[in-house]
Amino acid sequence: MPHIPLSGRVALVTGAGTRVGAAIARSLAAAGADLVVHYATSAAGADAVVDEARALGRRATALQADLHDREALAGLARAALDWSSGRLDLLVHNAANFDRVPPAELSAEAWDRAMALNATAPYLLTLELAPALRACRGSVVAIACVSAERPWKNYLPYSVSKAALAHLVRGLAVALAPDVRVNGVAPGTVLPPLSSSDEATLARLRERIPLRRIGEAGDVARAVVFLAENDFITGQVLAVDGGASVA
């Protein structure tokens, strides 16, 4: 069947204690999934997402891990499978850094931080959980970015790491087929950082978007649910950007 109901399925969402990750986790719970809510530092936010999922009748737990640390990453995979009795139907790679690095401040450290969390961690965590995903004929959804296609001047390490993630989606889709589907969502301007939220800046951003609005976390979350539920889509990166990437 082309539609996979999420009721009774188990989903792990990284970076799900805040912002877009929390919205994705909430949408998956609303669609029927049980949740493993990963967080690095946002413990209170992760606990709130767990409470909301449980209020819907879902099973849910919050697990902390620093995904820069390979041992901690492997520990997260083990803890998630221990909690779910070995089942995993959906892995959502959302955790990321979004460091602003102007050209004059480019450094090896900025590169390493971006690549470690935004590209290496999704690769390694997918490999750790691939056997469980295969057993459930599950799927992976990675949150990429439209900057993977056109790098942003002040976010070069971030943009390059997201380009690596988008390529990883396509490569893993082939490597893990036919048992595991792998897709991505590439948001455009969604939830701008507070430093960019003055009305003049927001007005300029809206003018660049054909649909004339800033994206919301729910726009990304709905795309994740769509890709999780359709079993004839793999290797695709869906832009959720109001049309900005084609303008």
TrEMBL record:
- Sorted UniProt keywords: Oxidoreductase
Q: Which domain of life is it from?
A: Bacteria
Q: Which Gene3D superfamilies match?
A: NAD(P)-binding Rossmann-like Domain (3.40.50.720)
**Which InterPro entries does the record associate with it?**
NAD(P)-bd_dom_sf, SDR_fam
Annotated Pfam families = adh_short_C2
Q: Name one GO molecular function term.
A: oxidoreductase activity
Does this entry carry the keyword Oxidoreductase?
Answer: yes
Looking at the keywords, is Cell division present? no
Family, similarity comment: Belongs to the short-chain dehydrogenases/reductases (SDR) family.
Its name, as the record gives it, is 3-ketoacyl-ACP reductase
Q: Which species does this protein come from? A: Sorangium cellulosum (Polyangium cellulosum)
| Phylogenetic classification of the source organism | Bacteria, Pseudomonadati, Myxococcota, Polyangia, Polyangiales
Gene name of the record: fabG
